[in-house]
Design a protein that fits this description.
Number of helices: 19
Number of strands: 18
Strand content: 15-25%
Shape: globular
Radius of gyration: 24 Å
Bound molecules: ligand TZD, calcium ion
Strand order of the largest sheet: 2-1-3-4-6-5
Structural class: alpha/beta
Helix content: 25-40%
Distance between the termini: 60 Å
Length: about 525
């Protein structure tokens, strides 16, 4: 007899969702019964780490990732990580076990009351199927909803007595379905955009994470070259959409209204691709645009387009639209932008290392296609200046600033990209929110390198305390943490590197090996 259980596994298999990130409870055990041999289960010890690993896996593979959480408590633990997944357009298919149907009403232990409501507003779609026979169809809907533009997390609550029920007649149609976006702007819309770009005297490109998500980085390079445009990364960058030593590259825009207007001053047309307009952070009011500038926004996300406070927007497929633009625009006669000067390497120093020195060593030793998962908040601009990134999918940072992404996402990214090396660069504050991912790295031998920058404080908050004039805030320091002991406790080889020579030696050894390594580096506190 075909059951809801095997029909659902057929659908997961057909969509390539054979890696399951989870942390189980009694509600989930019937789903895990007869676990098929062609599936793998990646156990995380806390749901924040489970969702963070799945997030990294989905972002780095470009494909949906399947998550299985324990009822309401497991979902709640994962929700901080969902903030990042929501803003990074990460296609997570999150399932949670529910009590048996007849015991939800009495609110038996582990009944997920009002389950579909729980993860909102951080999911695009959320449901508990109305009967067991609808579970396979709802699972198929969940996968398509997560995968269609804009990609996003979805949530499905499934009562555990549903799995053994007979599958409905016709269930086999589900696994065979294909559902896809068909998202090129019309010829008229493209024509108007080409016209605006060719009329502009001094256009500029601002690129966001969805350019990298669409693997359209090379198209962005060619468009910048053809139109002689400087290329900025949109504020609060969660991915790297443009090679950072290209002569058109200008850096990451600040996350402040007035700061952006100041840096883009003089441009008459701002073309923003694959980013919200804009993802501001610190409040620094001013005009949204420099004087005389118009803004055009290409996005895959209708929500991003509609909520922007200025500019015109086209909602469509980023790769196809850039490709069509590139074919239609004429090469400009303007000179190409001059390359930015490279920062001078930091001179050898005594005492605690400056983050610049750490990044110089990383830049020197990391393979050309290394992937950086970054979660140290006070060192963001320094990192972008000093560590070269060349290829698509080279950088991931929590898209909503929700800490607990870095360590788990490094594990998930490394699982999705076994041919490339992942280097996690994690603050001593951030590391604690997702620390249990170290155990998963050790148990599954996921060879990510975790560099913990230990400055003993929430560095970015120290800076923010100055901006907000709160000189006396409590709770900003994190002394007394020994990450080498913590790492060893979770089974990861862990070493301290307190000077540049030791860091060079340990990073080289870690990159030459095939196991996870944690390197704790005492560092100075700098401003973001
Ligand atoms: N909790 C969560 C889940 N997310 C957050 N963003 C914060 C708290 C607040 N927060 C920041 O926004 S930055 C930061 C905190 C606590 C400090 C992070 O410290 P770190 O990095 O050691 O990782 P730096 O380089 O010292 O800033
Ligand atoms: Ca810190």
């Amino acid at each position: 007899m075909k059951t809801v259980h095997n029909a659902s596994y057929d659908i997961l298999r057909r969509h390539g969702l054979t890696t399951i990130f989870g942390n189980p409870g009694s509600n989930e055990l019937p789903f895990l019964k007869d676990f098929p041999e062609d599936f793998r289960y990646i156990l995380g010890l806390h749901e924040g780490a489970v969702v963070g690993m799945a997030d990294g896996f989905a972002l780095a593979s470009g494909k949906p990732a399947f998550v299985n959480l324990h009822a309401a408590a497991g979902t709640g633990n994962g929700m901080g990580a969902l903030t990042n997944a929501w803003y990074s357009h990460s296609p997570l298919v999150i399932s949670a076990g529910q009590q048996v149907r007849s015991m939800i009403g009495v609110e038996a232990m582990l009944a997920n009351v009002d389950a579909a409501q729980l993860p909102k507003p951080l999911v695009k779609w959320s449901a508990e199927p109305a009967c067991a026979q609808d579970v396979p169809r709802a699972l198929s809907q969940a996968i398509h909803m997560a995968s269609l533009a804009p990609k996003a997390p979805v949530y499905l609550s499934i009562p555990y007595d549903d799995w053994a029920q007979p599958a409905p007649v016709g269930v086999e149609h589900l696994a065979a379905r294909s559902v896809a976006n068909a998202g090129l702007p019309s010829a008229a819309q493209l024509g108007e955009l080409v016209e605006r770009l060719s009329r502009a005297n001094n256009p500029v490109l601002v690129l966001g994470p969805d350019v990298d998500g669409a693997n359209a980085n090379e198209l962005a390079v060619q468009l910048a070259e053809k139109l002689r445009m400087p290329a900025w990364v949109a504020p609060s960058a969660s991915r790297c959409p443009f090679p950072t030593r290209h002569r058109c590259f200008r850096g990451v825009l600040p996350a402040a209204i007035s700061g952006i207007s100041r840096l883009l001053d003089g441009h008459d047309l701002i073309l923003v691709v694959g980013a919200p307009v804009f993802r501001y952070h610190q409040f620094a009011p001013g005009d949204y645009l420099p004087a005389g500038a118009a803004l055009v926004h290409l996005t895959c996300d209708p929500g991003e387009a509609a909520r922007a406070p200025m500019g015109d927007a086209l909602v469509g497929d980023i790769y196809l639209t850039l490709e069509a633009l590139l074919e239609s625009v004429r090469t400009s006669q303007r000179p190409l932008p001059e390359a930015l000067p490279r920062p001078a390497p930091r001179a050898a120093e005594e005492g605690t290392l400056h983050p610049e020195t750490v990044f110089d060593v990383i830049d020197e030793l990391a393979p050309e296609d290394a992937i950086f998962v970054k979660e140290s908040t006070s060192t963001v601009s320094t990192f972008w200046q000093r560590v070269e990134m060349r290829q698509p999918g080279s950088y991931f940072f929590p898209a909503a600033g929700g800490l607990g992404f870095g360590l788990p996402a490094a594990v998930g990214v490394q699982l999705a990209q076994p041919q490339r090396r992942v280097i996690g660069i994690i603050g001593d504050g951030s590391a604690n929110y997702g620390i249990t991912a170290l155990w998963t790295a050790a148990q599954y031998r996921v060879p990510a390198v975790f560099i913990i920058l230990k400055n003993g404080t929430y560095g970015a908050l120290r800076w923010f305390a100055g901006v907000l004039d709160v000189p006396d805030a409590p709770g900003l320091d994190v002394p007394g943490l020994d990450f080498c002991q913590i790492g060893r406790g979770y089974g990861v080889r862990s070493v301290q590197a307190a000077d540049a020579a030791t860091l060079r030696e340990e990073l080289a050894r870690a990159l030459a090996g095939d196991e996870p390594v944690l390197i704790e580096v005492p560092t100075l506190t700098i401003e973001p």
